Structure formats: structure tokens, C-alpha cells
Amino acid sequence: MPSGDARGRGRVVGRDAERLAALYDAHAAPVWRYVVHLTGDRAGADDVVQETLLRAWRTPRILEQDPASTRSWMFTVARHLVIDDVRSARRRREIGVAEVPETAEGDATDALFEAILIEEALGALSIDHRAVVVRAYFGGLTVSEMAEDLDIPEGTVKSRLHYGLRALRLALQERGVTR
């Protein structure tokens, strides 16, 4: 008898497939147009029609009815699917755009605040120390170039740079920038 059960299920599936094909032929196009009218989304309408037919296939009483009498049921299911999609969390979080945005640019706010803090800390240095630190780090000058530019010995440049950086670190610590 197991072979008879398998053949019986095969016939039911075959009969269901015929009824599902009849439902598709009779109702897919009108349901698709209805969903496009509701949403304006042609690709989404394909998905809704597919899900509607899947639900019809999973509801045995729909397959047993005459395909001509199930249109209102299919319209109702399609409408509920559209409503569920609109209410879904996915839909609320996604924003459709006409063009894909270019790469995001970083916010310059942090850099602006850092520049202000550094400017204030440099302002706390003596004029001699600030002149050497600014030329070394912002001007990119070597010790010999700074010595020539400021008309002082190289040893004095090194000393001012050392003590200027130490004073700059202390000024930044006072402003909470470093430990």
C-alpha cells in the first residue's frame, strides 16, 4: 500500500499544479495590475503576485474552488501583503534615492577643534619657542634651515625646540588633550 499512497499524493500534487496554473492564468495579470496601481513598483508587484499564488497553493480550500470565484480573495491577500510591506521595519529604514551617493566625506568638526586647541596651546608658548616649533612642524624645516632663517646657532634651535615641545605638551595637558 505505500506505493498507492505515493501515487495518490502525486495525483493530488498534479491536480493542485493544474489548479494553481488555472489560478495564475485567470488572476495573475489583474492582481499584478492592482498591485502596481497600489505601489507603483512593477518589480515589487511580481513578488506580491508570487506570494499571493503561494498562499493560494497553501490554502487547500482556494484550490478546490472554481478559479473564477477566487479573485476577490487574491485581491485581499495582495492588498494585505502590500500593507504589511509598507508597515515593515525594512521599509521604514530604507530610503530610495535616484542615484547612489558618492563616498562619504568625513566630518571636519574634530579637525577644526583640534586646530583651535593647538593654536591656543601654541599661543601659550614664548615667541622664541613658538617660532622654532612652528617652523619645524608646520614649515618642515631642518635644524640648519631654522638656524639660518632665525640667525641663531643650531644648538640654540635644538634647545628651543626641546623646551618648546615640552611647554606645548604641558599646554595641551592643561586643555585635556593628552595625559
Describe this structure in words.
The chain is an all-alpha fold and 179 residues long. The protein folds into two domains: 9-93, Orthogonal Bundle (Rna Polymerase Sigma Factor, Chain: A), CATH 1.10.1740; 109-174, Arc Repressor Mutant, subunit A (Orthogonal Bundle). The chain contains nine helices and no strands. Helix 1 packs antiparallel against helix 2 and helix 6 (109-123) crosses helix 9. The protein is rod-shaped, with a radius of gyration of 38 Å. The N and C termini lie far apart (84 Å). Mean pLDDT is 82; it is low at 1-12.
Give the tags.
DNA binding, sigma factor activity, Arc Repressor Mutant, subunit A, 179 residues, 77% helix, transcription, disordered N terminus, mainly alpha, transcription regulation
